[in-house]
Amino acid sequence: MFEALPNSAAMLARREKMPVINPNKKGNPIKHPAAKGPRIFCDSAVKADIAPLLKAGLIHGITTNPTLLKKAGAKSWKEAKAIMKDLCAMLYPLPVSLELTELTEDKMVKQATELGALGKNAIIKVPMGGYPAVVDGGDPFTGLKVIRRLWEKGIKTNVTLIFNTTQALWAANAGATYISPFLGRLPDYLAKNDDPSRPSGNSLYWMGEGAQKHANSEFVASGGERRDAGPRLIFEIAQVYANYGITTEILAASIRNPVQLTECLLAGADILTVPANVLSTVADHPLSDAGMVGFLEDSKAFSK
Ligand code: G3P
């Protein structure tokens, strides 16, 4: 169970600098109670899933990636671009993250312009790393170089595939507008790779034995239970960003259930991107159902 850690004074001060998401309405004497609440995005490229959430005022933007575009039916780059363009128009002026698929610096910067032309609300999603894994002799700093070049051009970026705090720091230093730590994939990975002969918990975190233990940057530096790795990562990033007054927004991604959603909020995420199937359940609770049935029944006493 993720133990909620107290927000430091620096974290609270950073929040003061973050954007107002629910502005007060002119002439309305009631100030919006969640003016600086966390923004919620929908992690989907399927228009039919997004439309009801948008209409209900539940979301403030969306995030897409090649996997989600494939799920939405794209079978070619042309079709993917048509879907992305449609989504930008549907969400405008709310932000829509569109991911680069090119793998080398100049081509990525060029593709960013192509994606930017799909809508004024397009945010360019740049993978943080993984380039040597997909390009022979790939430059590990490709993503960081692209983020810096896009920042210089005044283009907003969302840096994806973030799994530790150092990646989050360097992405911010390069000029990232948002960073996307993948909350759900981290405990999945740890569950697969953890070594049962080691002490329980986040044991992969330790590389050495005895007093000479070293942090392995693959894992959450602050350790803790394996299943807490996601929210602890968010907390670590939020604390480090606060320590240095960094205003890159922490967009928690790869959320699979309402518990993880709450954990992100406790950990200090600025934005949550949530799959449509999870968002569609946010108003539900079995006790709400039972309560409604009871109230409806009792209201019959005076409904005539
Ligand atoms: O926004 C990132 C998200 O789409 C990844 O989610 O569930 O594939 O880890 P998942």
CATH superfamily: Aldolase class I
Shape: globular
Biggest pleated-sheet summary: 8 strands, parallel, barrel
Annotated CATH topology:
TIM Barrel
- Tell me the series of helices and strands, N- to C-terminal: HEHEHHEHEHHEHEHHEHEHH
Tell me which oligomeric state these chains represent: single chain
Sequence of strands across the biggest β-sheet: 1-2-3-4-5-6-7-8
Helix content: 40-55%
Cα distance spanning the termini: 49 Å
SSE-based structural type: alpha/beta
Secondary structure layout:
Layout: H1 9-17, E1 39-43, H2 47-55, E2 62-63, H3 66-71, H4 77-91, E3 96-99, H5 105-116, E4 122-127, H6 131-134, H7 142-152, E5 157-162, H8 165-174, E6 178-181, H9 185-193, H10 229-243, E7 249-252, H11 258-267, E8 271-274, H12 276-279, H13 286-299
Parallel strand pairs: 1-2, 1-8, 2-3, 3-4, 4-5, 5-6, 6-7, 7-8
Helix pairs in contact: 1-10, 5-7, 7-8, 10-11
SN-glycerol-3-phosphate binds at residues 43, 63, 65, 180, 182, 184-185, 253-254, 273.
Question: How would you describe the overall organization of this protein?
Answer:
This protein has 304 residues and is an alpha/beta fold. The protein has one domain (9-19, 36-278): Aldolase class I (TIM Barrel), CATH 3.20.20.70. The protein contains 13 helices and eight strands. It has helices at 9-17, 47-55, 66-71, 77-91, 105-116, 131-134, 142-152, 165-174, 185-193, 229-243, 258-267, 276-279, 286-299, and strands spanning 39-43, 62-63, 96-99, 122-127, 157-162, 178-181, 249-252, 271-274. The protein has an eight-stranded parallel beta barrel, surrounded by six helices. Strand 3 (96-99), helix 5 (105-116) and strand 4 form a beta-alpha-beta unit. The longest helix has 15 residues, at 77-91. The radius of gyration is 21 Å and the shape is globular. It starts with 8 loop residues before the first helix and ends in a 5-residue tail after the last helix. The model is unreliable at 200-206 and 211-215 (pLDDT under 50). The protein binds SN-glycerol-3-phosphate (G3P).
